[in-house]
Amino acid sequence: MKYSYYPGCTLRTKAKALDVYARESARLLGFELEEIENWQCCGGVYPLGNDEIATKLSSVRALNEAKEKGQELVTLCSACHHVIKRVNDDMRNVEDIRQRANNYMQLSEPYAGETNVLHYLEVLRDRVGFEAIKEKVVNPLKGKKIGAYYGCLLLRPGRIMAFDNPENPTIMEEFIRAIGAEPVIYPYRNECCGGYISLKEKELACSMCEKIMDSAAGFGADLLITACPLCLYNLNAGGNGRLPVVYFTELLAEALGVKKEAGNQ
Amino acid sequence: MQEGMKNGCAGAPAVLLERISTLLAEGTVARVLGWKAGDMAYNPEPAYFETQEALKDFVYDGFCGANLSKYMIEASKLEGKTLVCLKPCDTYSFNQLLKEHRVDREKAYIIGVGCGGKLDVEQIRRKGIKGIQSIDGAQLVWEESDPGTELKGIGDDVLTIRTIYGEKTLPYGEALLERCHVCKGKEHRVYDELIGQSRDTKDADRFAQVERIEAMSPEEKFAFFQQELSKCIRCNACRNVCPACSCRKCVFDSNKFDSSQKANADSFEEKMFHIIRAFHVAGRCTDCGECSRVCPQGIPLHLFNRKFIKDINELYGTYQAGENAEDKMPLTSFDFGDAEPGIVGERG
Amino acid sequence: MNREKKQAELITEISGVNPLKCMKCGKCSASCPSFEEMDIKPHQFVSYVANENIEALVNSKSLWKCLSCFACVERCPRDVKPGKLIDAARQLVIRQRGQEYLSPDEIPALLDPELPQQLLVSAFRRYRR
Amino acid sequence: MQRIGVFVCHCGSNIAATVDVKKVVEMAALEPGVVHAEDYQYMCSEAGQSLIAKAIQEKQLTGLVVCSCSPRMHETTFRKAAERAGLNPYMVEIANIREHCSWIHKDMEEATRKAVILARAAIAKVNLNTPLQPGESRVTKRALVIGGGIAGIQTALDIADAGYEVDIVEKTPSIGGRMSQLDKTFPTLDCSACILTPKMVEAAAHERIRIYTYSEVEKVSGFVGDFTVDIRKKARSVDMDKCTGCGVCQEKCPSKKTPSEFNRGLNNRSAIYTPFAQAIPNVPVIDREHCIKFQTGKCGVCAKVCQAGAIDYEQKDEIVTEKYGAIVVATGFDTIKLDQYDEYAYSQSKDVITSLELERIMNAAGPTKGHLERLSDGKPPKEMVFIQCVGSRCADERGKSYCSKICCMYTAKHAMLIRDKYPDVNVTVFYIDVRTPGKNFDEFYRRAVEQYGVNYIKGQVGKVIPQPDGKLLVQGVDLLDNRRIMKEADMVVLATAIEPNPDVRKIATMLTASIDTNNFLTEAHAKLRPVESPTAGIFLSGVCQGPKDIPETVAQAGAAAVKAIGLLAKEKLTTNPCTAKSDELLCNGCSVCANVCPYGAITYEERQVNDHGIREVRRLAVVNSALCQGCGACTVACPSGAMDLQGFSNRQIIAEVDAICR
Amino acid sequence: MPMKDEFKPKIVAFCCNWCSYAGADLAGSSRLTYPADVKIIRVPCSCRVNPMFILRAFEKGADGVILCGCHPGDCHYSTGNYYARRRMTLLFSMLDYLGVENGRTRVEWVSAAEGVKFSQTMNEFVEKIHSLGKNVRLEDLRCRKE
Questions:
Q1: Closest-CA distance of chain C to residue A263, Å
Q2: Neighbors of chain C with 3 or more C-beta pairs under 8 Å
Q3: What's the rounded Cα separation, in Å, for the pair D540 and D529?
Q4: pTM of the model
Q5: What percent of chain C is predicted at pLDDT more than 70?
Q6: Which chains touch E (3+ CB pairs under 8 A)?
Q7: Angle of helix A16-29 versus helix A248-256 axis, rounded to 10
Q8: In this prediction, what percent of chain D has a pLDDT beyond 70?
Q9: Do residues D644 and B256 make contact, with C-beta atoms less than 8 angstroms apart?
Q10: In sequence order, what are the residues at sequence separation of 6 or more whose Cβ sits closer than 8 angstroms to the Cβ of residue B324?
C-alpha cells in the first residue's frame, strides 16, 4: 500500500527522528510513504481568519498532488496534520474558500477536498490495525508505563479532525498496548503545552508543561510519547525534566526491532 | 409463401398461415387478430379474420410493425377466444395490460411469432427513394427447425424497391424501425405457442439518444424539443396506438382537470400533453416505440418515454415494464432511501 | 459609521463568529489554560465585540496570551468559538497597523539549539503579517 | 352558479394593521359568484359568527369564504357556524391572510395584494365546492396507554375511573418508570416511592386496567376510534399465574454479574430478576442474554428452587391483538449519554456521576443502602460539586438545544438533602442560570442557599481533572468576579440533559404522530391543544411531549385522560367526508390506485355500467369511505382522472392555481 | 424611488396540511418573513399533487413551483411523501430534459415544527427564481398580460 506523505519542515531538520522511525516501521508493516514532490511548509498554524486564502494554498497543493496520484495523504507532525486536515475540510465544505483557492491555483481540474488526510497513527489504527502490529512486535516494551501526550492539534476541533474523542482519546493508548507497554491515562494529556508561546513567554509555557509532567508522573508514567516536535521541545525545555519525552515512532521502531536500521539512515 | 398478394405484398409464411387456419377451423379460436395488406406494399394494417376464407388476405412480413396487444382490450370483451400474433416486443405490452386487468388471458390464444426486425418505410424514403411501387425482400424466410433457434444476422439481406424512377436496392438493416436497433430481445414473455424464428437486430445503445440530449445545455434542449414538438398537430395517433394509453377516456378529453383540448392553441399545450402523456405511462411503457412509428410528423416521441425509463433504471433499479405480469411498478412503489428530487439539479 | 463599529464588524467577518449566540456560561474561560495571564478574559471577548469596545480589546495583552489551543472552541456549547474572535482581533492589529509583536531582530536572542522550525514558523504566523 | 359570501376578519390589528381589509372586501366583491362581502373586527367572535349567519339567510348564500387566520385554527369554527345557519359546512373555505400574509409581510400594499389573491383562490375553489356529508364510524371503548411510568399510570387510572377499559403496555418488567428510581421529590421532599407505590398498586388492582409489562407495541393500524394494535409480550420465562413472588429464584441464581438497569449500572443483579422490591407485577423475568441456562444449557437452578413450578424456559414471545378507540403515549425520557462530554471525566472516574445515579445512591434501597459514599473507595465525601446544564442548552450536535427544565430544582434538592443529612459536607453548585419557575420553587432554591449554605457559583465548569490521589480537581471560573476556581472535590454530580425515550421514534412512526427535531412528540397546538397529537385519537402524556417535572406530568396525564375519555364517551364519530371517489365512467379498473392506497380502502368489483348508451360489465374501483383517510395518493396514480378527492378535487386545485397565477 | 419593471415572480407553494402547512403557520406566528410572491395552496398530502397542477401553474405564468411535505418517514398518511418523492423526481428530471431550468421546481420536507426552515426555504427559493428571471419557456403566452 502506498500513501502520499507530507513530512513538513521540522521533520527535515530538528525532528528527523520522528520521520526516519516512521518510514522504517512503515516498511516493516507493509506500507510505503511516498513523499510529495516540492512540498511547501504548511505554515504551522491553521489560519483562523475566514478571509485568508494565500496561507492555505501550500496545503491545497499537497492535497491536490495526492489526489492526482489517487493516494491518501499521510502526515506525522501534529501541526501539519491539523493544518492540512482543516484546509481540506474547507475545500470540501466552504464554497467561498474552495472557489477562491481554485482561482489562485489554476489546476487542470478544480480541487474540492477529494483527498483523504490521515495521520500516521490513523494509518496504524484504521489501515494496518493494532492487532496486526501486535503480531509484528519483536521487542515488546514490557513493563513500561507510558503516558500518551496528545496536545491540542491532533484532537481539536473534534468535528473537523475526526481523529478521536477530543476529551477522552484512546488511539495512542491502544498504540501503547500494541507495542506491549502499559498506557497511563492522565487528565492533562489533551491540555496545551504552550505551543508557540514558548518563544516569547517561556515561563507561561513552562508552567503548563510542568502541570502535564506532574500529572503524568503522578499517575505513574515513566515516559511520555508525542507526535509533535513542538510539544516535544516544550516538554523537554520546560517540563522540569521529571519524565523523558520521545516520539511515538521511536518506540514503534524499537518494538518492531528496526530502530537500529533507522538510526543508520 | 403465397404468391399473387395484392400490391406486391409479401404475404405470410406458410407454416404460420397453416397453423392459424387449423386453429380457426377447429374452433379453438373464434377469430384471428393479425395483419392484412394495405393499399401499398409497405403498410399492412391490423385486422380481424373470422373465416378461413378471409385468411387469404393475412399478411405477416417485414412491414408488420404494428403492435396488436392493445386490440386485445376490445377483443377480450368478445365471445370466444381471439388468436393474436405477437412479436417478442409486443408480448411485453400484453403482459403490462394483463397486470392492469385490461386484457383477459383466458380470451387470448397467443402465437408468438418470430421477428427479424421490422421495416420503416420512412427510413427508405429518407434514403431518397421516392415513388415506391413495390418492395421485394420483406418476406420472412423461416427454416424448418425449432422456433427457438435464432437465425443468422441480417448480414447482406437486401430490399429491392421498384419505383416509378426504376429499381433501387437498400440493405435490410438500413431500413429498420428505430426500436429494432435497440431491440429488447427476441424472447416472447407470454404465449401459447411459438412459430417462426427471430434474428438479432440490436446494434445501438438504447439510451444513446437520450444521453445526447441530456448532455445539451438547457437552451439547446429547449430548442431541440421546441423544434420537434412544434410539428405536433395533436392528431392523437400516438395516443391511439399506445398500448399503455388505453384509458377509456383520456384526461385531455374529459373535464376532470379543465384540461380538455382538441388542438394546440399555443406552444405550451403540446408540451403539456406530451409530458403528461409520458408521465401517465411512466413505469408502464414497455418502450414498444409505436408512438414514434405512427407519428405522421415524424416526432421522436419515444424520447420522452425512454427518458423516464432511463431515470427509473438509474434511480430505482433496472425495470422493464411487461417483463412479467407480477412485479410492482416503479411509480406505485418506493424505497425509504430513494433519491430526493434535488438530485435532478445535482446530476447536472 | 464610526471606527470601532467598523472594526467590530471586521472582527465578526474575519472570525465568522456571531457574538449573539453566546449565552454567557463562561465555559471558555473555565477551559482556558491562559486565563490567569489575560486581562480581558475569554468570555469577555464576546461582549467586547458585541458592544463594539474594540480599542480596549486590541490593546489587551490577552491577544498575545491565547495559545490557539482550541479548548474554548471545542467546549463552547453555543458554537460561539471565542478563540476565533481573539484571533481575528489579533489579525486586525497585525494587518491594519503594521504592528508586529515579533520583530526579526528579536529572534537570534530567542533561539536555542533544540528549537524546532515549527515553532518559528507558527510564531511568525501568529505575531506577524 | 354559487352565491358566495366573503367575510374578511381584522383579527383586531393582527390582520388589519398590515392588510387593507376594506380593499380586500372591495376586490373580492368583484369576483364571479360573490354576492356579498363584508369585514369585521373579530369574525370568530359570537358577533362575527352571527354576521355570517345573517348573511347566509338574507342573501341565500351557497358558499362562504372567510379571510382570516389559518384554517388549522378556525376552519371548524366557521364550518360549524355555517351549519347552524343551514349551510353545508363543506361549502366554507378559509383564505389564510394572517399566518400566511399579515404576520409575515410588512408592506401594506404588498400584503393587501397578496390577501386579495388568496381570497380569489378561495373564492375560485368555493365556486366548485359541493356539499359533502360526513359518514360515521364506531368507537371502541377501550384505551391503550404506552408507557407505565407516573404519566401512564395516572392517565390509565383517570380513564379507568371514568368507567372505560384501559391497557398499559410497559417495556420493562415492572411499571413505575423513572419516578420509581427517585429518592425524594421537590419541592416538598416527599419520598418518591411513598407516593408512587400506592398508585402502582391501585393501577394493578383496578378492575378496568390490564397491565402488559415486559411488552412492546409492535404494530398499529386503523384510525381514531378504531385502532388495531399488536402487542408483543416478550417471553418472561416465568409463569405469571403460578409465581408467588417469593424471590428465592433471584437469591439462588448463580449469574449475578449483570449491571442493574434500575440502579443505573451502579451495582449488579441476577439473571432472573425483578427490577426493584416493590415491582408490579412482582414476578421476575429471566434475562436470557445473561442466563447460564439459556447461554450454555446447563444450570436450571431457578426451576429447581421454585416451589410454585413457575419457571418456564420454553416460553415464547406472544403477540396479542387488541382494538382501541384512543391511544395515549407516555413513553417518558432517559438521560443523554455522556461520551461527548468527557471533559467532565465521567468515563474516567467513578466518582463523577449523573444526578439520576445520585438518586440511587441516596436511596435506602440503592446500591449503597442510602449512604452517601464515593463509588471508587466507599469513603464519605467531604466536598461535593454539582455541575448544571450538562448537555442542555447546546447549539452544537453534542447536546440538546433545549433546557431540560428539571435539573435546577433537583440539584437544589440534592444539595439541600446532602447538607441536611451530612452537615460537614460542603456543596458547591456551578450554574449558568438558576431557573425556578413554579409554585414554591424559587423559595426552595433560596432555602438551599440561605438555610443550608449551598455555595452557588455562576460559571460553567471547563474541565474535571482527576488527581492521582483520587480527588477531582474542578476547573471553573466565577464569572461574577472574573476569578479562576480550582476546586478540589470528592464527588462531582452532573445534571445531565434528558431526552425522549429513544423508542419514541419507532412508536411515533407506527402511530403516524409527528415528532419534532428533538424527538419530542408534537402537540396539535402549542397552547390550545397541548395534550393531543395532530393525529386524531393520539394523546400525549408526560415527558414524551417536552421536559416536565412530576406535578406537571401528573397534570398533563390527567388532561390526556380527559381528552381520551371525551373521545371514548362518543357513541359514533363523524368521519371526514373529504375522501376519494371514483368516476365509474372513467375508471379503467387497472388497480394502480389500489397499489398506492396505504389503508387498503380501494377494492374492485365487476359491475354493469351505462356509458352513454353502451351497457357493459366493467371492473371498477370502489372506495370504502370509512377506511379512506383522504391523502389523495390514488388520485395522482390514476391516469384517467377517474379517481378524485372530494374537498380537494382536481378542478378545485386547478382553480386555485389559476387564481393565483392570474 | 419607485423601481421600474421590478420582477415580481409568481410562486406557487403546495403544502401538505399536516406538516408543511403547519410549518408555514408556525413561520407566520413566529413572524419569520418571506416574500409575498409565495402563495400557498393547501393539499392534504404531498402525494395529492398531480404533475398536471405544476404544469398548469407554469402554463398560467408561474415562475416557480415548490412542493412541501412531511419528512420521509413522518407522513401523516405513512407513505404519501414517498410516492410524491418519486413522482416529483421524475417530473423535475423531465422538465430539466426539456430545457426548463431545474431551479424553478423544488421539493422540500418541512415539519410542523420547522417554521424557520419554511421561511428560509421560501426566501432561498424566491431568490433562486429572481436569479433565473421570468419564466418564458413554459408559459402559455396567451396568459401573459401586456
A1: 19
A2: A, D
A3: 10
A4: 0.74
A5: 94
A6: B, D
A7: 40
A8: 100
A9: yes
A10: B95, B189
Grid cell of A60 as nine digits? 491545497
Q: Which of B326, B290, B320, B330 is nearest to B99 (CA)?
A: B326
* Distance between CA atoms of residues B219 and B269, nearest Å: 19
* The three cell numbers locating residue A241: 525534566
C-alpha–C-alpha distance, residues A166 and A154, integer Å:
9
- Cα(D52)–Cα(A24) distance, integer angstroms: 90
Q: Are A186 and A162 in contact (CB under 8 A)?
A: no
All CATH 1.10.1060.10 domain ranges in chain C, comma separated: 3-98
* Partner residue facing D640 (CB), from B251, B332, B333: B251
Q: How many CB pairs under 8 A join D and E?
A: 154
Provide the shortest C-alpha distance from residue D543 to chain A (in Å).
30
* A133 lies in the same domain as A32: no
CB pair distance less than 8 Å for D661 and E51? no
Using the structure block, give the residue that is written with the C-alpha cell 375560485. Answer: D124
The amino acid sitting at D4 is: I
Interface of D with A (CB under 8 A): 339-343, 345, 347-348, 396-397, 463-468
Number of separate helices (H) and strands (E) present in chain D:
17, 34
What residues of chain C lie within 8 A of the CB of D398, using their CB? 77
CB-based contact A152:C33 (threshold 8 Å): no
Shared-domain flag, residues D556 and D601: no
Calpha distance D341→D355 (Å, rounded):
15
CATH 1.20.120.350 fits C3-98, yes or no: no
Has residue D136 been placed in a domain?
Answer: no
pLDDT digits (tens, 9 = 90+) for B116-172: 899 998 889 888 888 888 888 888 878 766 665 666 667 678 888 888 888 888 998
State the Cα–Cα distance between residues B17 and B2, nearest whole angstrom. 10
Helix (H, G, I), strand (E, B) or coil at B3: coil
Residues A13 and A96 in one domain: yes
Q: Which fold has domain E11-143?
A: Rossmann fold (3.40.50)
Do D534 and E22 form a contact (C-beta atoms < 8 A)? Answer: yes
Distance to chain D for E125, nearest Cα, Å: 16
Total structural domains within chain A: 2
Model confidence at A148: pLDDT above 50: yes
Closest alpha carbon to C11 in C62, C48, C44, C39: C48
Contact between chains at B257 and D583 (C-beta distance less than 8 A)? no
Given its phi and psi angles, is residue D543 left (phi above 0), alpha (psi -120 to 50 degrees) or beta?
Answer: alpha
The CA–CA distances, whole Å, from D192 to A21, B76, B132, B275, D414 equal 62, 76, 100, 67, 14
Q: Which of E45, E47, E52 to mutate to test the interface with B (most CBs of B within 10 A)?
A: E52
